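Researcher: Hi, I'm a grad student and pretty new to this. My advisor asked me to get structures for two proteins we've been looking at. I'm not sure of the right format, so I'll just paste the first sequence and hope you can take it from there.
Model: That works fine. Here's the first sequence with its structure tokens right after it:
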Amino acid sequence: MLKVLLVIGSGSFLGGISRYLVSRYIQNTFIPAFPFGTFVVNLAGCFLIGLFFGLSERGNLSNAELRLFLTVGFCGGFTTFSTFSNENLALLRDGSFYYFTLYTGLSVFLGLAATYGGNAITKIF
């Protein structure tokens, strides 16, 4: 059990650091009024978890510890619902209803589409 926790924890550690670096870079590159950093990170994480589970279903990712490292650890540390919620609350407080609606709607719709796409791509190869 300790080994599994260390595998997940190390994946989460790397995912969290990756989230910070990618999100910060993207946010500094685009319009600061819209939370592009978290948006892109969450969509990328949705795609990756779909890809990882698709590979797992095909048997290409049969090592349980690697699967836990990538999905629960890395993707869990890389994506963040709490930041998404906090940014939405900030948009509402600022009266940015357009950006709130856009961010929430696109995040949910494109997040599901990215997860599906990541999973579907494993069926092609």
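Researcher: Oh nice, that was easy. Here's the second one.
Model: And its structure:
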Amino acid sequence: MNTINEKDCLFLIIDIQDKLVKMVNNKLITDNAIKIAKTVRILNLPTIITEQYPKGLGNTIEEIRNEIADAKYIEKTNFSALNEFSIKGEIKKTDKKQIIIFGIETHICVLQTAFDLLKEGYEVFVIKDASASRSDENNNLALQRLMHAGAQILSTEMVIFELLKSSKHPNFKEVQALIK
């Protein structure tokens, strides 16, 4: 089991869109997703953001779009992002081995994408407190399945501090301020 390596990771943000956020109605999830987006921007980490049928579900929430406007945004209709040829290609282009994934809904799009990433040989890290489903039961069952399949389940703070590794990191103070 490995820890997150800042130089070998890619963030994959799944469907944190206007209408889906309203359906899960969980401010903590949104707040944590925004903290992660800010961290990604500060550390300049590669990020792919998916949007499930944005015509019907809206775009990625504004707070995330404002933080990481230069991320690769990709529309999808498949539940597993890896079933979209363009997303699979974008992930391969980065040559990263660790994929940090979070979003909505945990038991559908996050789960199916993470399973496919594991099948492809990636190390998968799922941020529990930045992922949600409409029901807690579905969310919890998905996280259990993911853990049994080999994904590592983490919290927002675990991800942030694993990326930093030390208080000597050049961006430590700026990133740490996000937690307070």
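Researcher: Is there anything I should tell my advisor about the second?
Model: You could mention this: The longest helix spans residues 27-43.
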